[in-house]
């Protein structure tokens, strides 16, 4: 009797141990864990300083807004900001998953109001916009030319901007449009690391002072919370590829014995496209893609139907050889996923 009981206990222990191992393996291979990370919910703050250049935006508009939000907003993961030569400033705040964006938007709006007293009057008069960035994509409208001919990508982009985009923007329920094309403009990027700059006792203002006013296009910064990486900067300059060496040799600081050059400060100086990732091919042919996003609390199907009807009407007046396709329809993807 004792031997049978002992045998039963050993068998039960073995089965229990195997079960734990199987459950652990199943957890490690869980399909949910194989899925890509979801994009973090985010809110964007847009401001404009008419007539200002990048340095003016960085000096008088960015600090009050950036500091007010960074030090007081809740559940923030990290923040990016870009000051451009047209006087615009875009701050994007990324939140931890599950954050209530409605409450976060109200919180940021209040923080913007607090900071507005430190901003130039022209910025306040131009208005500061707080936008939710998690608007769903309704569809992607693609425009392409069947023949290379005279209708290159530049023509398609201009044609869409004049004859298609304004109509889609007027459709009730459309929030905003994002146009993707093959960007032919190029610029120089100077990548800076704040830790490296701190080791050299160097400020961003000193680095920017070495770059001519008419060449400075934009400056992008990244701020992390929770003890993560410190602030980094990317400086964008309008220049030619042949000026890489010239820019690298620009003197940031000097004394009687030595000279600190831009190439000594920058983690990387490179020449490349104005933006990365803008590349469209439709049926193997060069084209453009117009991504349509939906405003909150509006009917998804009605927006799609209205845009499709608009494109059918617009296509009747297309120049010969220009076609359109709606290649991305999230609703169809949902139906397929649910089967």
Give short descriptive properties of this protein.
xenobiotic transmembrane transporter activity; AcrB_DN_DC_subdom; 5-stranded antiparallel sheet; alpha+beta; 13 helices; 3 domains; 339 residues; AcrB/AcrD/AcrF family protein; Multidrug efflux transporter AcrB TolC docking domain, DN and DC subdomains; Acrflvin-R; Alpha-Beta Plaits
Structure characterization notes:
Pfam families: ACR_tran. This is AcrB/AcrD/AcrF family protein. The protein folds into 3 domains: 91 residues, Multidrug efflux transporter AcrB pore domain (Alpha-Beta Plaits), CATH 3.30.70; 107 residues, Alpha-Beta Plaits, CATH 3.30.70; 88 residues, 2-Layer Sandwich (Multidrug efflux transporter AcrB TolC docking domain, DN and DC subdomains), CATH 3.30.2090.10. The chain contains 13 helices and 15 strands. The strands form 3 sheets. The chain has an 8-stranded antiparallel sheet. β10 and β11 form a beta hairpin. α3 packs across α4. The radius of gyration is 27 Å and the shape is globular. The chain starts with a helix and ends with a helix.
């Amino acid at each position: 009797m004792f031997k049978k009981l002992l045998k039963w206990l050993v068998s039960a222990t073995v089965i229990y141990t195997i079960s734990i191992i199987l459950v652990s393996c199943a957890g490690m291979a869980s399909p949910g864990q194989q899925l890509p990370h979801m994009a973090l919910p985010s809110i964007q703050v847009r401001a404009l300083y008419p007539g200002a250049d990048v340095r003016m935006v960085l000096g008088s508009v960015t600090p009050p807004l950036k500091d007010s939000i960074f030090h007081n907003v809740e559940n923030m993961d990290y923040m990016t900001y870009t000051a451009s030569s047209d006087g615009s400033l875009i701050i994007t705040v990324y939140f931890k998953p599950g954050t209530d964006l409605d409450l976060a938007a109200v919180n940021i709006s209040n923080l913007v109001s607090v900071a507005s007293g430190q901003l130039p009057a022209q910025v306040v008069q131009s208005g500061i916009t707080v936008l939710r960035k998690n608007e769903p994509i309704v569809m992607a409208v693609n425009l392409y030319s069947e023949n290379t001919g005279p209708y290159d990508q530049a023509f398609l982009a201009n044609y869409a901007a004049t004859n298609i985009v304004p109509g889609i923007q007027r459709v009730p329920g459309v929030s905003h449009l994002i146009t993707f094309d093959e960007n032919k403009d190029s610029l120089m990027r100077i990548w800076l690391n704040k830790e490296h700059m701190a080791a050299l006792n160097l400020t961003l203002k000193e680095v920017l002072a070495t770059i001519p006013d008419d060449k400075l296009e934009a400056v992008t910064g990244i701020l992390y919370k929770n003890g993560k990486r410190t602030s980094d900067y990317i400086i964008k300059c309008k220049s030619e590829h042949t000026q890489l060496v010239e820019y690298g040799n620009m003197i940031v600081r000097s004394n009687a014995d030595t000279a600190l050059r831009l190439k000594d400060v920058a983690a990387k100086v490179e020449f490349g496209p104005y933006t990365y990732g803008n590349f469209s091919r439709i049926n193997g042919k060069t084209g453009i893609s117009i991504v349509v996003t939906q405003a909150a609390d509006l009917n998804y199907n009605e927006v799609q139907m209205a845009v499709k009807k608009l494109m059918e009407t617009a296509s009747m007046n297309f120049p010969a050889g220009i076609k359109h396709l709606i290649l991305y329809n999230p609703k169809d993807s949902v139906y397929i996923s649910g089967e």
